[in-house]
Amino acid sequence: MTSDSIEKEIKELLRDDNSKALEIIYDYLGRKLYGYLLTILCSEQKAEDVMQNVFVKIAEKRDRIAEANNITGYIFKVARNEAMDYFRRQSKNHEDISKYENILCVKEEHKDKVDAEEIKEISKSLKILPQKQREIISMKIFQDMTFEEISRALRISQNTAASRYRYGIEKLKNKLRGFKNGI
Asked: Are 145 and 76 in contact (CB under 8 A)?
C-alpha cells in the first residue's frame, strides 16, 4: 500500500468515527513518531508519556485530521506541539529547561562507546545548528525517514529538507574537524 492510499483509508475511517483509524495510524506512524519524540525529549519515559498525549489529541481532533491534506504532516505537528507543551509544563514546575535545549542526544546504549569529552563536544556541536536543521537530521538519522517522508511530515519541499540536512551535516563536520584538530 502506498502512503497516499493509507492516508485515504485513515481519512475514511476517521470520518466514520471508526476506532480502527487509530490502530492504522499507530501501525503507519507509531515507530517514527516515537523515535522523533525520543530525540526531542531524550527520555524513553517522557517520549512514551507524550506519545500517549499525541494519540489522545488525534482522537479528539479526528474531524480536523480527516480533513487535512497531509495527515502525516498534521500528526507530526501534533507530536511536536505536545513535546513543546511538555517543556513548557516542566518550565512552570521550575525545572531547568536548558537541559532540553539539545534536540538530539546520544542514545543511552551508545554512551559507553563514546568517551565523556566526545559526548560533550558532540552536544556543543549540535547546539550550533538551527533548530530546523537539528530536526531534519534527527528525522533522517534516528528515524531513518526519507526526504519525501520528512517533507510530508514537516510540510516542506523535499529540496528544502535535503538542503537543511546537507547544511546541518556540513556545519557538524566543520565543527568536529575543529575539535579533532584541537581548535
From this structure: no
The span from the first CA to the last CA of the chain, in angstroms, equals: 51
| Residues 66/15, Cβ–Cβ less than 8 Å | yes
Portions of the chain given CATH number 1.10.10.10: 104-183
Q: What is the pLDDT of residues 109-160, one digit of tens each?
A: 444 444 555 545 655 666 678 878 888 887 887 677 889 888 888 889 999 9
Chain centre distance of CA 150: 10
Sign (positive or negative) of CA dihedral 67, 70, 76, 80? negative
Q: How far apart, in whole angstroms, are the C-alpha atoms of residue 55 and residue 53? A: 5
Fold for 1-100, please state it.
Rna Polymerase Sigma Factor; Chain: A (1.10.1740)
> What is 104-183's CATH topology?
Arc Repressor Mutant, subunit A (1.10.10)
Q: Which three cell numbers stand for residue 3?
A: 502512503
CB-CB contact of 66 with 148 (8 Å): no
Full-prediction pTM beyond 0.85?
Answer: no
